[in-house]
Every structure is written in structure tokens, then in C-alpha cells.
Amino acid sequence: MKLSRYKKNSLFLSIILYLLIISILVITIFNTIKLHNISNKQAENYLKDVSTQIVMNVDSKIKFILSDLRIMADFIKQYKGDSRYEYLSKRKTSYKYYDIGIIDLEGKTEFLSGKKFDLKNTVSYKKGMEGKEYSEVIESLGAVLYTVPIFDDKNEVSSLLIGVSDKESMNYILNIENFNGEGTIEIINSKGNPLFIGENSELIKDLSYKYKDSMDEPWVQKMLNDFKNEKSGHTVITSSKNIKCLLTYYPITKGLNDWYFVLVVPEEAVLGELNKLNSFTIIMTFIVTCIIGIITGLLYTIRKKYVNQIENIAYLDNITNGINQTKFGMLVKPLISESPDSTYMMIAINIKEFKLINDCFGSDKGNMTLKHIYTVLSKNITKNEEFVCRHDADLFYLFIKNRPVLEVLELLYKIEADINYFNENRENPYFLRISVGIYTIENRNEDLITIQDYANTARKSFNKAHQSDFSFYSDIERKRLISEKEISNLMEKALEDKEFFICLQPKIDIKNGKVSGAESLTRWRNSEKGIIYPNDFIPLFEKSGFICKLDLYILEETCKLISKWIKEGKEVLIISVNVSRQHLKDKSFLEKYELICNKYDVPTHLIDLELTESIFLENPEAIDVIKDIHSKGFKCSIDDFGFGYSSLGILKDFKVDIIKLDRSFFISKNNIERGKVVIESIIELSRRLGMKVIAEGIEELEQVEFLQNVGCDYIQGYVFSKPLLISEFEEFTYENNKIKTLRISSD
Ligand code: C2E
Ligand code: MG
Ligand code: MG
What local confidence, expressed as pLDDT, does residue 54 receive? Predict the structure, then answer.
């Protein structure tokens, strides 16, 4: 039971452990995702910062060039014609222009280098005419134009000053060292056409087709839309080589051009370390969790192995390898108590003359036989619903579902046939016979020991030597057992509460009709059961050894009575008490008897100790006990003489004072005449050996007469009196403290 509780606990602990491991995993994954999101946000912000920085650089460069040109335009308006170019060629510019020139109102442009172009179709021209400064990439020239209007005195645009710079000059701003050199910057126009591309252009080239060729992609549309509204933005895209990239875009120098800044960085380059760390954490957590899981699993398996070993030691029968009585109990008890009455049967099975197998073939063969029987029994029951165990020695118990008597017998015959199957084709068969007791478990509250007792009692009730027998447990037998159990539960308390008392049955001297003595007999007055007679409890008390206490108590009560009579001046009588065979186990038992007599000043010669005939048959050393009894002054009788068969030998060896002829001599109606001869002979023999004879259980006057004639000394029987209560006995025996004389003849 404890083991199964232990199993439950460890299952509970295992579940908790596994839940813990799963929670660790979930929390780690959850945290990693959260961390991933945070780092994405951080990466976005970081990209914004880097972009803003570069945009500001580009922006300030443009503004610087335009303001440089603006200053020149302010000066140049005082000059006319070629002197303007002279001024331009002389002026030391803060910025190193590739070329510098003037656009007239028709769009005709003449540069310092002497080159002439018509720039009427450029945006720079249009914006300039509107009085606005502008910067523009002219792809066909591979140059960047910066234009500022030159105003006349009326503050009207008279011409435009144009500075040209190399496209390459912008690129160095666009080269960034961040992101392990993996990031790329591009400046595009609102149509998505590239204007400037920084280093590491592979990635951007791969990506830019998307916003040039796949305008229908939602993120491209959003970006171009944002350009119109001069808004910045951020998105995540995947390159054709399946590289995940972060893309950030910004408008540059709002109103001064149609340039948009685009920064593209592989996500790996930004989040690389962080992602690696995250992945590492996840993998490590996973590995550690797996290791913990595996170790826990291993520990669980090892523990399970040990528990199994312990269970095997605790629950297996080492001879049959099947379950033992303990495990049997654990399995069947709940089934009995949880099922309706009469659901199951308990069958006790024993091998007849099993001792012979051990004696003839040795204990190894004996053990093999037991194993064989266990195997046969377990094959004949329903697995997991019915059970079998070897209880001890060659006693087995079968716990099966209740079934009609015929079916039970059928099963048992089959079991017997299976057990003896090994004899098939044997020259000298050796048949094993079984004795079986069957009990239907009628009450689910009955405890297992009682149930097994019932089945076993049934088995013992009928036992023929050479054939199998199957006995069903009867109700009478059960009631006897229950009452025995009740009695043993009550006895100790009954003695304490003085529920036992004595009755005295007079012994009459046939020669003079006087009461010569009495036998002190126990009675038990129980508050619930009323008066209980010795035959119902003496055998039980003898089994438990409690009889010794009771005998001493009866002696004490008897001594009290004799002592009272002595004090009252009554004529004294010899009173006999019954001495159980159990006393003989205690060498000093007579000392206790003597002590009690001394306690009440009762001379020991007034006490007659009745020992049953069987004591003398079983214990040769009883000769010494008789000597001791006599040396202490007690009288001694052989009770129930003639009940056994070897009684005459006793007369020779055991010198007692009185022989008590058993009642059975007088109740048998067979061979009355021969019986009389036997009685006569015993009386004669006893007389010659110096022993008196008392006839017990005499109920008829005819018997009294016969006994008188054959020289019997005393009579104890209903013919004179039943056992009497003390007061009744005193009335029966005494008249003025003198012993009465009775009339004993039949007339
Ligand atoms: P027992 O010692 O042989 O006692 C005689 C029994 O025969 C008594 O039964 C008595 O009542 C009965 N008896 C006497 N005359 C007649 C008769 O004419 N007809 C019939 N039918 N019965 C007669 P009881 O008192 O029931 O005692 C039964 C047995 O119990 C005793 O047999 C004795 O062996 C035992 N016993 C009684 N008291 C004690 C005791 O204190 N200690 C011990 N150890 N055994 C006791
Ligand atoms: Mg007796
Ligand atoms: Mg007797």
C-alpha cells in the first residue's frame, strides 16, 4: 500500500518536473521573441540615426554648394557679358566645381570651360526661372547641376548661375563603414530611378529592380507615395538571393531637388550578433532542457527498476514466481469492498499428501510441483480480474468471480485434470489430488483473513485421503467461527469483570447416600449472551492458553467458598477442580495452586485435581506430576476415563486417588451387557490397585443400582443433581452444617 502511495507521489513529482522543464522552454522562447522584437525596434532606430546622419551630410553639402553659388550670383549681377566669366574664373570658390557657367533666359548655357549646352528642358532651368534654387543629376552628362537664380535690380530673374560637380564627388559621402561594410546607400528620384549609388552596390542593384520593375509591390507603392508627401519610412524586404534586408528612406533637402535617400542593410549585419546570441540562448536552453529531461528520464527509469526490484522482493513468491499473499491482498481487497455482495468466491486449494512428494522426491521436485500448480491455476482464471496466490506450504487461494455451483465444480475438475496432465503417456502415473474449500464472499465488509479462513475451514471439513474433494463453506460453520471470534474478544474483560462463577455438582457416596464432595464447574454470565456453558468456550480457551488463568480463578473461587464453610463450622467436603492440559507446560504450576490454597487457609487435601485421561496418554511425564500433586497434599483424579482407547495402561502407571468413569460408558445403547462387564472389571481392577471409582453422567436410577452392585464408590450425575449455584448446593448438602444423607434406592 505504501509502495503504491510512493508511486503516486513520484508520478506527481515527475509531472511537476516535466511541467517545469516545459515552462522553462516556453519562457525562454517567449523572452527570445520579445528580445528579437526589441532588437528589431532598436535596429530600426539605429538605421534611422545612421540615415539621418548621412542625409544631413548630403543635405549640408547641397546647401553649402547652393549658398556658395548664391553668393557668387549676388556678385555677378553687377557684371555684364564676358566680365561675368572673368569674375567666375577669378573667384576663388569654396567648392571645387567641375565646371561653372551661366544659363540665359532661353536656356542656353555657356560654361567657363567653353562648353555650351541647351538646358532649357532641365528641371533646374524651370525652377531657376521661377526664382528657385535646385540641384539635379543629368545622367547624360554624368554630372550634378546646382542652379541658383541671378536677380536684376528689379529683383527679377535675369539668368541662372550653374555649378557642375562630378557625380563621383557625392559618392564618398554615401560610403559608410557601419554594418561591417555590408550596408548600401542609394539616392533615387521620385520615380525610383537611381541617382547615386554608394559602395557595395551588389545588394542595392539586386534590390532596386524591385522598386523600378515591380511597382505593384505594396511596399514600393508606399515608398513612392511617401516620397510625394516628403515623408520618410522603414520596411523589411528580401533580396532575390533570399537575404532579409532592412530598408530606410528619407527625402533630402526638401524642395531643393527630387532626391531621396535609401539605406539598405542586411538584417544579419544589424542584428547579427544579437540574433546569434538569441539563437545560441535558444539552442543552449533547448540542449540543457533536453539534458535535464534525459537525466530525469534516466533517473526515473533507474528508480523504476529499483522500485520493481523492491516490489518483486515484497510481492513475489520465490517458489512460484507468482504474487504472494501480500500482493494478493492488495489486489483483491478493493475488489471485494467495492463490489456488491456475492460478486466473488474464495477458493482454498491444498495438495493432498504433499509431504510425501517432498519426502520421496526431495524439496526441489516439491517446489517444481508447487510452481506447476500455480501455473495451472493462473491459466484457468481471467487475467487481471481473478487472482491466485500461494499462501504458504502447499496452500493456494483462488479469487474468482461468483458462478453457479456446477460451473465451479467444472472449473475445479478442469484444474485437477490440468494439474495431472503431466501423467499423459507416463508408464507409472503419479496422480496429484487436491482438497478444495469454496466460499462465496457474501458480505463485502468481511476482512480477507476471515474470508480465507472460511474457505480453508470448508476445505478441512472433508478430507478423504486418496480422492479429491471439493467442499462448500456452510453457514453453521461460519456462525461457529464468528461466535468463537466474539468469545476470544470478550474473555480477558470477562475475567476482570468477574463474569465467571462456579457451580457445584455433588458427588454421592453410594454406600451411605451422603454427599462426599463436589466438582467445581465454570459458568460464564455475559450481559449480552446470557449464561455460556463450558463446552462453548473451554476448547477455545485451551487453544489460546487463557484456560490457565481461568482455572486459577476457579480454584480461588472454590477456596474462598471452602474457607467460608470452615469459618461457618460446616462439615468440610473435598471439592474437585478441572486442571487443563495447558498447565503441564508450566513446571511450577502446582506452586501457584498451593499459593492460592494457602492464601485462603484451605488445606490442600480438600482439593481434588481432575486431569483428563488424554493428559496421561499424551504426557508420560505426568507420572511425576501426580507425584508432585500428592507431595503437596492435593488429591488427584483421572477425568473422562474410558473416553480414549488405551485407558487400561494408565491404571498401571498412574497412581491416582479416583478414577472418573466417562459418561460415554453409560449412554451407549450398544452391547450393554459387554459394557457392564467392562465397567465391572475396571472397578475391580481399580479397587485392587487402591483407587476409588466415580461414575460420571449418571441419569437413571437403574444405573445407580448397577453401580452399587458392582462396587462403584461414588456417583456424579443428574440422577442426584445437576451442577448447582452455591446457595442451592449448600441447601442440597447441608442441614445444620452437617452433611445430609440422601435416599438413593429406586423404591
Ligand atoms: P467434566 O470435567 O467431565 O465435567 C462434567 C461435565 O458433565 C459437566 O459439564 C457436567 O455438567 C456434565 N454432567 C454431569 N452429570 C451429567 C449428567 O447426568 N448428564 C449430562 N448430560 N451431563 C452431566 P459442564 O459443566 O458443561 O462442563 C463440561 C466440561 O468442561 C467439563 O467436563 C470440563 O472438562 C470442562 N470444564 C468445566 N469447567 C472447567 C474449568 O473450570 N476448568 C477446566 N479446565 N475445564 C472445565
Ligand atoms: Mg471434570
Ligand atoms: Mg468428566
Answer: 80
Ligand 1 near 457 CB (within 6 A)? no
Nearest protein Cα to ligand 1, atom 7: 697
Domain that holds residue 467: 325-473
Nearest-atom index, ligand 1, CA of 534: 30
pLDDT along the chain (747 residues), means of 10: 62 79 81 80 79 83 88 86 85 81 92 89 91 88 89 89 84 70 80 77 65 69 84 83 82 84 80 72 80 82 83 89 94 94 92 85 91 96 95 94 86 92 81 89 91 89 60 63 76 93 97 95 92 90 91 97 97 96 90 97 97 85 92 96 74 90 82 86 93 95 93 96 97 94 69
Is the C-beta atom of 534 inside 6 A of ligand 1?
yes
Cell matching residue 102 = 551661366
Domain boundary among 473, 504, 521: 473
What is the C-alpha to C-alpha distance for residues 250 and 48, in angstroms, rounded to an integer?
A: 9
Report whether residue 578 contacts ligand 1, using a CB cutoff of 6 Å.
yes
Model pTM? 0.48
Question: What pLDDT score was predicted for residue 616?
Answer: 83
Local structure of residue 428 (DSSP, 8 states): S
| pLDDT number for residue 1 | 45
Ligand 1 contact via 535 beta carbon (within 6 Å): yes
489 and 462 together in one domain: no
CA distances from 501 to 488, 492, 506, 683 (A): 18, 14, 16, 33
Residue 714 near residue 516, CB atoms below 8 Å: yes
Q: Is 368 exposed, middle or buried (0-12, 13-18, 19+ CB in 10 A)?
A: middle
State whether the beta carbon of 505 lies less than 6 angstroms from ligand 1: yes
Establish whether residue 640 lines the binding site of ligand 1, counting it when its CB lies within 6 angstroms of any ligand atom. yes
Strand 194-197 relative to strand 184-188: parallel, antiparallel, unpaired?
A: antiparallel
| Domain assignment present for 743 | no
CA-nearest residue, atom 44 of ligand 1: 580
Q: Are residues 587 and 716 in the same domain?
A: yes
Best residue among 550, 578, 579, 581 to mutate for probing ligand 1, ranked by most atoms within 8 Å of CB: 578
On whether both 545 and 577 belong to a single domain, the answer is yes
CA of 578 to the centre of ligand 2 (A): 5
Q: Is residue 400 part of a domain?
A: yes
Q: Is 680 exposed, middle or buried (0-12, 13-18, 19+ CB in 10 A)?
A: middle
- Looking from the CA of residue 723, the nearest atom of ligand 1 is 11
Same domain, 386 and 487: no
Please tell me the distance between residue 611's alpha carbon and the centre of ligand 3 in angstroms. Answer: 9
Q: What is the pLDDT, as a whole number, of residue 367?
A: 94
Ligand 1 binding pocket includes 724 (Cβ within 6 Å): no
CB 7 within 8 Å of CB 13: no
Ligand minimally distant from the alpha carbon of residue 576: 2
Pick from 473, 502, 526: which residue ends a domain?
Answer: 473
pLDDT score for 106: 92
Nearest CA to ligand 1 atom 6: 697
551 lines ligand 1 (CB under 6 A): yes
- The CATH number given to whatever domain includes residue 379 is 3.30.70.270
CA pair distance 8, 132, nearest whole angstrom: 88
Burial environment of residue 593 by CB neighbours within 10 A (0 to 12, 13 to 18, 19 or more): buried
> Within this chain, do residues 494 and 523 fall inside the same structural domain, yes or no?
yes
Q: Is the CB of 540 under 6 A from ligand 1?
A: no
Nearest protein CA to atom 34 of ligand 1, as residue: 578
Q: Residue 613: nearest ligand to its CA?
A: 3
